[in-house]
Amino acid sequence: MDLLLWRHAEAEDGPIDLQRRLTARGEKQAKAMGRWLREHQPKKLRILASPAVRCQQTAKALDLPFETHRRLGPEAGVSDLIAASGWPGAGGSVMIVGHQPTLGRMAALLLSGEEADWTIKKGAVWWFTNRVRRGETQTVLRAVMPADLSQ
Q: What's the rounded Cα separation, in Å, for the pair 104 and 95?
């Protein structure tokens, strides 16, 4: 299974968190990463996005169909991401467009076995693969692509 974690691009500040929109810079970040992802995406990619406007705008930059999941909002926990994605046994490929600190905590769990406050930069993608080698299940970090390198 492939799991891609895409943090929403740069967003405006605002009093209503779910309504915060991307900045002009954030729109540029999302479009650049969307181009990179279209060129490199795994086959049969299922895209899940937070209902927050900034995540919806980020996901739309990919120009592919996506599903909105209320449980992937800013208040989501790592268990919500695992349940939504079906990691590690769902097979296929899933991308979650979401928020810090949950995406960073998920990345930490996948690589170290424990949740920790790791940071995923705005607009960046972390790509993981789950595989079995000699009877041992392994998580492999395939790529980390910050938004500024995808341009």
A: 14
